[in-house]
Amino acid sequence: LSNAQPCDPVTFEISSEEVNGPLNLEETVLSAQTSEPEWLREGHSFMDIEELIGTPIKYLLIQSGTVDRYKVTVTAIGSMRGNLVEKELRRHLDLVLGLKDDLRAFYDGFSNPDEPLSRTLKPLRGLRLMRGTNLYESLICSILSQNTSARLWNRTARLLMRHYGRKVTFPDHTVYHLFPEPQTVARADAAELRRKTSMGYRAKPVIEVSKSIMSGELVLEEIVKRPYREAFEELLELPGVGPKVADCFLLYGAGRLESAPVDVWIHRIVSETYFRSRKVSRLEAARFLRERFGPWAGYAQLYLFDYARRSSAWVHVSEKTA
DNA sequence: TCCCAGGATCAAG
DNA sequence: CTTGATCATGGG
User: How distant is C1' of B1 from CA of A200, in Å?
Assistant: First the structure.
């Protein structure tokens, strides 16, 4: 029918009519709230690599229009038939960008002015919660994120990929590294792993978790099938996994929207905003978010966190709503 | 030099 | 069931 080769770039569009509500791609990607390494910028687009049915695909996204009427142009390259790439990539993007999430229901549910969260809804309209697609990768990255900055754990994750992940070369001759397999990390030398990735004391739990996955003792796919509380408790048994990392994995890695990771920022925001600056424990803050926002706890956390960090206006807001 | 960053862990109180 | 010290590492 055509002379198109499997290696030729494939381009298609996702329009707002196919998505469940508004989308702000830039805000979503730059929120950096993920359990997998943040997407890279390439020109005005965002770029990521993903293995789709076993084949590495490199894709670029750019949004045009408004957060309500828009189209997202997707360009993909990799060794896969064009129509198959499109089909797989659409499915993939639906998941990782949360395009099925009913944002309008979320907004309607918490737009009451008495609800402090309501103030974040308009400025962050279209912000969606990104999901990972690889449970192992999500767990390792969540462990890496403990007691460090988002920027640093992303750097560490990229180094882990570069030194331990499979190297892939795309038809456009660009070279990237995938996230490593559990076997590779399990066999790594701890000292060398630390030296090459700067992951510090996190190397030990990273290797231990990788080993128990390799041995079959730990099956993440089974854990995420359980009810929230059960899955949470089981994750706490893993080395390097505490309440925050467990929630991070469940929310961003497994897409469990009822979980709400409480880091230093959310801890601060929840205490100031919902407890009149009374210092509450982290567990108390997490429980509060789950009880108040129910199935939208993860989204509430996302909006509070992003608004506070990126607008740097939260002090003002919390004073007005205190 | 000290403090902090998407905390976890262990020993004490 | 809470609190405090310790754990690597790089940035401010």
Answer: 21
Per-residue buried b or exposed e for A29-40, using 16+ beta carbons within 10 Å of the residue's own CB: bbbbbbbbbbbe
pLDDT in tens, A51-82: 999 999 999 999 999 999 999 999 999 999 88
- Is residue A149's beta carbon less than 7 angstroms from any atom in nucleic acid strand C? yes
> What percent of chain A has pLDDT above 70?
94
Q: Integer distance in angstroms from CA A262 to C1' B13? A: 26
**pTM (2 d.p.):** 0.95
The C-alpha atoms of residue A56 and residue A305 are separated, in whole angstroms, by: 32
Which residue reads 């709400």 in tokens? A260
Q: Is A223 helix (H, G, I), strand (E, B) or coil?
A: helix
Residue A50 three-state SS:
strand
pLDDT at A32: 87
Distance A237 CA to B11 C1' (A): 19
Protein chain A, residues 185-224, with a C-beta closer than 7 Å to any atom of nucleic acid strand C: 194-195, 198-201
Dihedral of the CA atoms A134, A137, A142, A148 (nearest 10)?
-140
